[in-house]
Design brief:
Chain lengths: ~325, ~425
């Protein structure tokens, strides 16, 4: 598949720090891309360059095969920032119309699309309600609708599930899948790893302005696996001789092993079978993204935002 | 440009459709008129009729003379009470509000001052009635002593020659009318700049507080966002102002129709006189210009401040204080300029962009080109236009950074740094 967005050696320095320091990335069409990183890693600055809010100091952004032009391309991008909100005193319908028109939709087009989305989310009766009268969850739903209303090719969601209950979270999650299936590309920025693991195909990890990891979720896990296997046995296993593995952990009927240098997992399995030990299950232990994240980020100052400017978080 | 237009429309419509706008537009003129009449009414009613006991040792203030004066003018009552003792005079239960002790007098010398002894304190408006009455009696005494009859008195009062300032270059400039109009127009400008300028600030702060700023700047440039807001609110101010002019015209025509009844004729006459004394179209035209240009100048400053502060209204107040000081300084310069409309303060005040909307507007009623030469008017306008363009541009740079900045207290020094910072 063609790449919809490609960042080439992107740099953005502020007086006090290198917010984005030479990041290159390529995101393919239809992908759900997880942009991860601790607070203050430079995610928001990176996203603000992609959405045309900031100009990069150096480097190029190629969007849909052409050099990114904020004025031309904003209509193809939907951005839901982490610091998000709506005009409190405005009516729901007018608000959606206004934001859609700012994205370049005509009044008629906007109204049509709002109708479709409001129906899908069961929001038809909200039209004349004021935003301040909506609950937080309802407000987030409206915010999501206004982000994707203009049918953007690239959707950037910064912590989209914050403030949502499980029901609405699932609703939004399903929409993300549906939008991706219909060809939209989604960049999903968060530090909630379990969501990334669940939703994303591809991830990049940013820390201190640099990209420190990039790949598919499976690929990354593979890269960081520690060759550990979980074996469930019928009853406690008694081992003798020199097993071709070291035991990392042993409980009643569970065994975590790591094959020794030069030995394969099949040899480990054969050794156990030769001892007449009943095997219930045999499974490789893959690290969770959370573990990888912590491992990579640990030891670096996690939150630079407290030392310096808050707008760079 | 198209998106700026969408923003202007929203800023305008949401404000104009608000109940507070309609109420303020209708109520403010009523309040204003009410205030003027109310103040007159209060002044009228706060004037008390003093009943004063008079002890006369001069012989000029006899009972018949006092009674005669009380008949002519009832705003104070003087009663001759030569028999009362000092103790009785000091007794405030005696039915009088105070007393006068007139010493033996020589009509040729008169008296520098006379103590009006009262049991309470009274305002000038109240005691003036007593003073006037005493002086009327004294004039009669002097006139009689000098044997000046009524005919001679008439000649004496006509012997005064008044000086009336008249500008020969500009026939229409009449300094009394100009002074009045100058004050009204200058203060109106002051009011508009402060009220609508801070509306821009509040609007920008609202966008920051509601966290909608970043949503919007992902669709439009921050500069468009700021410009849209300033133009939108400027249009609201213009609408309100035009509505008020319409009110005045309607009231004028209604009064004209009503004819001579209820003193309306006097008002119509006053307005007609006004139209002949000052160049109304010029004043209105200049007002429109200075109103818009001055608004742009101050609104962009207020907008920049609004973008830099967080939710805290006190922070906004302290940061916008220097701007407010500029407006207040302009008012001080305006007062000096009205006192001397061709002086150096007037000249500099009408050239400096921060004060020219107020100072120049206060001077224009004195006449162009009589008091304000054409070159001054044109230079003032050109400087103001260039300044507001520069100010909008600079404010845009502050706005761009400030609108996305949360949680940090910003100073003016920091805002100036944002101006020179690259994108």
């Amino acid at each position: 598949m063609a790449s919809i967005l490609s960042l080439q050696h992107l740099k953005k320095y502020f007086e006090s720090q290198k917010a984005v320091d030479d990041i290159s990335l390529s995101i393919e069409e239809g992908q759900i891309f997880g942009l991860l990183g601790p607070n203050g890693a430079g995610k928001t600055t990176l996203i603000r360059m992609i959405t045309g809010i900031f100009y990069p100091d150096q480097g190029d952004i190629i969007f849909q095969g052409k050099k990114f032009d904020p004025i031309r391309d904003v209509g193809a991008i939907g951005y839901m920032p982490e610091e998000r909100g709506l005009y409190k005193k405005m009516k729901v319908g007018e608000q959606a119309l206004y934001l859609a028109q700012l994205k370049g939709l005509s009044h008629r087009e906007a109204k049509e699309k709002i109708g479709v989305w409001f129906e899908r989310f069961g929001m038809e009766s909200w039209w004349n309600k004021k935003v301040e009268d909506l609950s937080k969850g309802m407000g987030q739903k409206l915010q999501f609708v206004t982000t994707v209303l203009h049918n953007p090719r690239l959707i950037i969601l910064d912590e989209p599930f914050s403030g949502l209950d499980p029901v609405n979270s699932n609703l939004i999650k399903d929409e993300i899948y549906r939008l991706a299936a219909s060809g939209a590309t989604i960049i999903f920025s968060t530090h909630r790893m379990e969501q990334v693991e669940e939703i994303c195909d591809h991830i990049a990890l940013v820390n201190r302005g640099k990209k420190i990891l990039d790949g598919t979720v499976a690929g990354v896990k593979d890269q960081f696996k520690e060759n550990l296997f979980l074996i469930e046995t019928e009853g406690p296993a008694t081992l003798n001789g020199t097993p071709p593995f070291s035991i990392v952990q042993q409980t009643d009927s569970k065994l975590i092993i790591q094959p020794t240098e030069g030995q394969s997992r099949n040899q480990a399995l054969r050794y156990l079978l030769d001892l007449q030990i009943g095997i219930v299950s045999f499974k490789e232990i893959l690290p969770s993204l959370n573990d990888i994240f912590i491992k990579l980020v640990e030891g670096t100052p996690v939150s630079r935002s407290f030392e310096t400017k808050k707008d760079l978080s | 440009m198209n998106k700026t237009w969408i923003i202007i429309k929203r800023e305008y419509l949401t404000r104009v459709q608000k109940k507070t706008f309609i109420v303020a537009t209708l109520l403010l003129p009523i309040l204003y008129v009410g205030l003027i009449f109310g103040m007159g009414f209060i002044a009228e009613n706060s004037r008390e009729t003093l009943s004063i006991a008079v002890i006369d040792s001069s012989g000029y203030f006899s009972a018949p003379i006092l009674e005669n004066q009380n008949r002519i003018d009832s705003s104070s009552v003087l009663t001759l009470v030569n028999g009362l003792s000092q103790a009785e005079l000091n007794n405030k239960e005696g039915g009088y509000e105070g007393y006068l002790i007139i010493p033996a007098l020589d009509w040729k010398k008169g008296l520098d001052s006379l103590a009006l002894n009262t049991y309470k304190s009274y305002g000038r408006a109240t005691t003036a009635a007593v003073e006037a009455k005493i002086n009327r009696i004294w004039s009669e005494v002097v006139n009689d002593s000098l044997q000046i009859d009524l005919g001679k008195q008439l000649i004496l009062t006509q012997s005064r020659i008044g000086i009336k300032a008249k500008n020969v270059i500009d026939e229409k400039s009449d300094s009394d009318t100009a002074e009045g109009i100058g004050y009204v127009v200058g203060l109106l400008m002051y009011f508009i700049l402060l009220v609508y300028g801070s509306q821009v600030m509040m609007g920008v702060m609202e966008e920051k507080t509601n966290r909608i700023a970043e949503v919007i700047v992902s669709s439009v440039r921050p500069f468009q966002m700021m410009l849209g807001k300033i133009i939108g609110i400027g249009a609201v101010a213009l609408t309100q102002f035009l509505l008020w002019i319409a009110f005045i015209l309607v009231a004028y025509n209604v009064a004209k129709e009503a004819g001579t009844q209820m003193g309306a004729a006097e008002m119509v006459g006053n307005m007609q006189r006004l139209f002949t004394k000052v160049d109304v179209p010029l004043i209105l035209g200049c007002f429109g210009f200075y109103f818009l240009a001055g608004f742009f100048f101050y609104a962009s400053l207020y907008g920049a401040v609004g973008s830099a502060v967080n939710e805290d209204i006190r922070e906004a107040q302290s940061l916008s204080f220097p701007i407010t000081m500029l407006v207040i300084l302009s008012i001080a310069m305006m007062t000096a300029s009205i006192a001397n409309p061709s002086g150096p303060i007037a000249l500099w005040g009408s050239l400096l962009p921060f004060s020219s909307p107020i100072v120049m507007m206060a001077r224009i009623p004195y006449g162009v080109p009589g008091t304000v030469p054409w070159w001054q008017l044109i230079a003032s306008m050109a400087i103001l236009v260039l300044s507001f363009l520069a100010m909008v541009w600079l404010a845009g740079k502050i706005y761009r950074t400030g609108i996305l900045m949360y949680g940090k207290k910003i100073t003016w020094g920091e805002m100036l740094k944002w101006i020179v910072r690259k994108n």
